[in-house]
Design goal:
This protein is an alpha/beta fold. About 45% of the residues lie in helices and about 15% in strands. It folds into 2 domains: about 210 residues, Rossmann fold, CATH 3.40.50; about 35 residues, no CATH class. The chain has 8 helices and 7 strands; from the N terminus they run βαβαβαβαβαβαααβ. Strands 3-2-1-4-5-6-7 form a 7-stranded parallel β-sheet, sandwiched between helices. α4 runs parallel beside α5 and α6 crosses α7. It binds nicotinamide-adenine-dinucleotide. The site of nicotinamide-adenine-dinucleotide (NAD) has 29 residues, from α1, α4 and α6.
């Protein structure tokens, strides 16, 4: 029970990786504030944690808006009186379109959610953790934070930004007891990949899926639980000397084919 009596905020908690993280942290004793967009299925996040007998609350928030981010940190302190871990995970894939044709508003939205949202999460949760004697932040980047991808310039730029933010935050916050790391998943079985397969393949989406899976050295996509396991490790005291690390969870795909 690495997170007994600890308090964890999970953003994007109603999504595939978020739900797996709720389950994983709850199974290890954490109390949870599940954050996602208004109208998303936050009840599903509550249901994932319920069987473990921990306290779990949900907070609708748009992570790209400072007022929403500061409100979710406030809610956490009101409900639990402390904050130990932030899993800064909310994200969107954006449109699949060449960079010369990419609409400005869409580009801005991807950067605002994926990069600004991660920065805001650290900006507002950092002081709460420091007041508590320290904590741990895990940001969700992507293998798209390490490699380029045609048609996904905004997403790729945002995830490279998350990698850079993580490295800088790790230097700034660790003297005050807050470790910051990032995870870089390759394709994982969630809604986001269904959307990308559809975007790249249209009615050939299944072919795109098989092609992407076959290009992975392990011949498959990852499972959300496999990402959550790494996140929980990095957030825990087992990772007490790990700071500013950028960890792939990708079956080895960034190493080549
Ligand atoms: N699935 C993959 O293959 C994959 C690979 C690498 C990285 N990632 C990253 O993992 C994270 C989780 O993605 P997922 O695969 O679970 O996809 P998902 O679409 O299932 O989940 C994303 C969640 O983020 C929420 N969200 C979107 N915009 C938000 C906002 N402005 N404020 C608050 N919440 C918001 C969505 O409502 C959704 O519940 C994302 O950051 C994504 O970029 C996913």
């Amino acid at each position: 029970m690495r997170f007994q009596d600890k308090v964890v905020i999970i953003t994007g908690a109603a999504g595939g990786i978020g739900l797996a993280a709720v389950r994983r942290f709850a199974s290890e004793g954490a109390h949870i504030l599940a954050v996602d967009l208004e109208g998303s299925d936050l009840d599903a996040a509550i249901a994932e944690a319920d069987p473990f007998g921990v306290k779990v609350f949900s907070q609708p928030a748009d992570c790209s808006q400072a007022s929403d981010v500061s409100a979710y940190v406030e809610r956490c302190l009101d409900e639990f009186g402390r904050l130990d871990v932030l899993f800064n995970n909310a994200g969107i894939e954006g449109r699949i379109i060449g960079l010369m044709d990419y609409p400005e508003d869409d580009f801005d939205q991807v950067i605002n959610v994926n990069l600004r949202g991660v920065w805001l999460g650290m900006k507002y949760s950092g002081p709460a953790m420091i007041a508590n004697g320290g904590g741990s932040i895990v940001n969700t980047a992507s293998t798209a934070g390490l490699l380029g991808a045609r048609g996904l310039s905004a997403y790729v730029a945002s995830k490279h930004g998350v990698v850079g933010l993580t490295k800088s935050a790790a230097l700034e916050l660790v003297p005050q007891g807050v470790r910051v790391n990032a995870v870089c998943p390759s394709p994982i079985e969630t809604r986001m990949m269904r959307s990308l397969e559809q975007g790249f393949g249209g009615d050939q989406a299944e072919m795109i899926r098989k092609d992407l899976a076959s290009r992975n050295p392990m011949g498959r996509y990852g499972e959300p639980d496999e990402v959550a396991a790494l996140v929980a490790f990095l957030a825990s005291d087992d990772a007490s000397y790990i700071n500013g690390g950028i960890y792939t969870v990708d079956g080895g795909s960034v190493n080549g084919r």
